[in-house]
Each structure stands twice: as C-alpha cells, then as structure tokens.
Amino acid sequence: MTADSKVTREIMERFNSAFEAHRPEDLDDLIGEGCVLENTTPAPDGARYEGREACLNFWKGIASSGDLVFEAEEIWASEDRGIIRWQLRWSEREADRVRGVNVMRVRDGKIVEAQGYVKGP
C-alpha cells in the first residue's frame, strides 16, 4: 500500500467513525475547501452540495442523529480514492435499513469529492 493509499484509508476510517459514534465534530478536520458532494437522494441524481461548509453541514446533520445507525461493511482505498460500503438502519425492524456506498476522493488529507449511492427497491 502506498503512502497516499494509507492516508486515504485513514481519512475514510475517521470519516466513517464520525457517523458510527455520532460525533459530528470529528468531521471538522476531514473536509476540504471546494468539496463537492452528490447525495443518495432524491433519485435519480441526488442533491448536490458544493463547498466545504455545505458538505460539512450536510454530513454533520446525519452524524448527529442518534436515530440512525451506520455500520461499515468495507472500507477500501487506493491512492486518492476511497470507498466505504455501509449499511444504515433507522429502527430495529429488518425492513428499516438500506445498504449503500460512498465513492470519495482525498486531496492533501481532506475529502474533496463524494458520491453516495444506495441499493434501490
């Protein structure tokens, strides 16, 4: 694994941990200026957020919700690209969950691009 891949994987792990631990403040040092996020909804393209503050505010809103339970299925990194496969639950009912993936790019130790996708019905 290259040095860039190690940095990207560390960023992916820290990003995911902020959601699993409901610690939105942990995202502050992870999001870069000029970040662009394409969310999972609404279909088919998802909402687009541009700029550090817009992306950070969106992600902090999700990370702060105690009703949501994120669980990583896999975290992968190569050079400046990272992937997090995850599962999201919003209740104990089996039907109240979704699986998805975030495809991300890291530059200078910060997330600068993210696309979210979910498995549809």
From TrEMBL:
Residue ranges of every copy of the SnoaL-like domain listed in the record: 13-113
| Cross-referenced InterPro entries | NTF2-like_dom_sf, SnoaL-like
Task: List the transmembrane segments.
Answer: none
Protein name, entry field:
Nuclear transport factor 2 family protein
- Please tell me the species this chain comes from: Sinorhizobium psoraleae
In terms of SUPFAM superfamilies, this protein maps to: NTF2-like
